[in-house]
Amino acid sequence: MNKAKRLEILTRLRDDNPHPTTELNFNSPFELLIAVLLSAQATDVGVNKATGPLFAAANTPQAILDLGLDKLKDYIKTIGLFNTKAENTMKTCQMLVDLHGGEVPESREALEALPGVGRKTANVVLNTAFGWPTIAVDTHIDRVSNRTKFAMGKNVVEVEQKLLKVVPAEFKVDVHHWLILHGRYTCVARKPKCGACIIEDLCEFKDKTE
Ligand code: SF4
């Protein structure tokens, strides 16, 4: 895909949604970190249902430590893989208290050292809580980037590197939300809604639907 098409795609996505953000509910970097940590293989709606009551009861690392593992599990038991996620959350809270004064560190290295936090989660937190121009590539972004030929890559890391290279600076902070939302609601996995897609004329996917 050429530069002019990419620019037009980004401009249309921005015009359609000038201030995109995550669909996870959060009011602090810590709440965002925990919500993202809980969101692996779960929907944002499902995570929000659990984190609403959880954060009302405990929304700092110390408060979650005080809650204890069993009560934490009770709050998040509707989310898939909740046992492992609860254990990782407790260990992460302990590290935040011990090493970072109870705050979420604004550092990729420090974030990725937390249990249950990988590159994608670190990218989301750095981008959405701290405004870094990082691009967290998930399954939606991977699919949209490859289908449209906007930024092709064999895996999420390759797509991330390609996006970082081809997306102009002014779009970098928001591009991951635009692509996720586009993949979640329009360029869906099984049967993309090409007839209702605002970038259909620019997209280079060969098997567009009506
Ligand atoms: S035209 Fe179809 S394949 Fe291309 S981005 Fe839109 S929904 Fe996806």
Automatic annotation (TrEMBL):
PANTHER family per UniProt: A/G-SPECIFIC ADENINE GLYCOSYLASE/ENDONUCLEASE III, ENDONUCLEASE III
Gene Ontology molecular-function annotations: endonuclease activity
Functional summary from the UniProt entry: DNA repair enzyme that has both DNA N-glycosylase activity and AP-lyase activity. The DNA N-glycosylase activity releases various damaged pyrimidines from DNA by cleaving the N-glycosidic bond, leaving an AP (apurinic/apyrimidinic) site. The AP-lyase activity cleaves the phosphodiester bond 3' to the AP site by a beta-elimination, leaving a 3'-terminal unsaturated sugar and a product with a terminal 5'-phosphate.
The record's free-text note on cofactor binding: Binds 1 [4Fe-4S] cluster.
PROSITE patterns per the UniProt record, alphabetical: ENDONUCLEASE_III_1 (PS00764), ENDONUCLEASE_III_2 (PS01155)
Cofactor needs: [4Fe-4S] cluster
Descriptive protein name: Endonuclease III
UniProt EC number: 4.2.99.18
Family the entry assigns: Belongs to the Nth/MutY family.
Keywords, sorted A to Z: 4Fe-4S, DNA damage, DNA repair, DNA-binding, Endonuclease, Glycosidase, Hydrolase, Iron, Iron-sulfur, Lyase, Metal-binding, Nuclease
Binding site for [4Fe-4S] cluster: 187, 194, 197, 203
